[in-house]
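Predict the 3D structure for this chain.
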Amino acid sequence: MAEQRSRRVFLSATAALSTAALASTATPAGAREPGDRGPGETLSPQRPDAELRAILREIDENRIEATVRRLAAFGTRHTLSSQTDPVRGIGAARDWIFARLQESAERSGGRMTVELQSYVQPPAPPRIPVATTITNVVATLRGSTTPERVYVVSGHYDSRCSDPLDAVKDAPGADDDASGVAVAMEVARVLATRRPAATIVFAAVAGEEQGLFGARHMATRYKAAGTDVQAMFTNDIVGSSRADDGTRDPRTIRLFAEGVPTSETPAQAEIRRAVGGENDSPSRQLARFARSVAENDATGMSVRVIYRRDRYLRGGDHIPFLEQGYPAARFTEPHEDYAHQHQDVRVENGKRFGDLPEFCDFPFIARVARVNAATLWSLATAPGTPEDVRIRTNQLTNDTDLVWRRGTDPDLAGYEVVWRETTAAEWTHAIGVGDRTEAKVDLSKDNVFFGVRAVGKNGRRGPVAFPTPLS
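Done. Predicted structure below.
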C-alpha cells in the first residue's frame, strides 16, 4: 500500500543525490566557462570514496537496536535517579555505557581512551533541587597527525517522564535519547580501528532534560583548556521516521543550524550587519559541509538543513557549545510524535503513550549513524577550517582580494575560493588557487559572497570560512 501523504511529506526535503564528483583541480582564477555567470568550476557534492563506503557498511542496525533496548531496560535514567543501584537508574546506565565504550577502545590500539567526566552540580531550581553529581561518558579517539583539532558528537543518556522532577517512575527514553546515544556509540565502535588525522570525541552526556548541564560542563571545560573544537553535533531524538499523524519520512534527517551566532559580540554584530553575513555563521558552514558529504547513496539519506538554532520551545546539547563560540548543530528526526516524548508510559482512550523501543525505527537510526559517520570522518580526514580569512576593503574596486593564514595540516595541498550569489543558499562555484594565502578574483565583493576552504592531498575539502573585512 502506498505511504500516506500529508503536509509533512509535501514539506519534506527532497534534494536529489548527485553522482558527479568534485574535480581535483578547479578553473584558474579569472577564467570563465562558456555560458557561466562567473569564474571557477561549478560545485558538486563530495562523493564518498572506497574507504568511507567501507566505514558506512560497518554500521550495524542490530547493534543499534540492542543499545536502545538495553538503555530503555534500565527503567529510568532520570538525572536525579539512583547512581548506585546496579540494575535501575542513571548510575547503572552510566556504567553500562562506559563498559561498552571501553570495549571499543580496546580495539583501537591505544588511540581511544574513555573517561567518566563528573562534577557536582549545585542546586539549580526548578529542575535540580539538590546538589547532584552529573557524569558524562566521553570516548576520545586521538588524531594521528593533527590531534589538536577536535570534532565532537554526542547523545544524552538521561531521560524523563511527564513530571520533570519524577526520578522514580518509568522513563524508558528510547527515542529521547537512547537513539542519539546509540548513534554516537556505534560510530565510536566503527571508527575505533581507524586513524583519522584529527581527534574525534564521542560523548554520552547527562543532565540534558534538567537544563543541558552535562553538555555545558563539557563545553566549558573545552573552552577553559583552549581546545580547538571545530565542530560539534548532537543527536537528539533521532529514533523514528513516523510522525504523529502516521506519515513516514524514512530518508530525511533534520539538521538545525543557527544563523546569527549565539556568542556574537556587539562588534561582531556590527560587522555582520555591514557585510550581510546572517546566513554565513560557522554553524551554517558546518551544515553545508554535512550536506555535501553525507547526502548520497552510501548513507541513503537527505539532510534537511533548518535555518534555526532549534525547534520552538526546545533546546539541545549543541547550545552550550554555541555559547562558547564553537560551531555546533543538532540532528533530529524529520517529524516528531509528542505522545512518545516526555510522557508517562500509559494507555488513554486506546492510545499508547511513552517513549518505548517499539516506537523506534531501527533501520532509520542506522542511516542517521551513517550520516554522522560520513560527516565526522570527512571532517577529521580533511584539512581544518581556514583561519583569519579576510577580504580587503581599503579601496573601491570591481574585483575582490582575499587573504588568510596558512594552516599547519601536514596533508594540506592548497586552497579554493568559493562564491555564490547573495540569494543562493549553497556555495555554487570554486576557484583553485593552490598553496597560497591570498587570491584576487574577477568578481565584485559587493555583488556575491565569498569563502575560503582548504584542500587536502587526498582531495578532501574542509568546511568554508567566511571572510571579515580588512581595511
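The longest strand covers residues 146-156.
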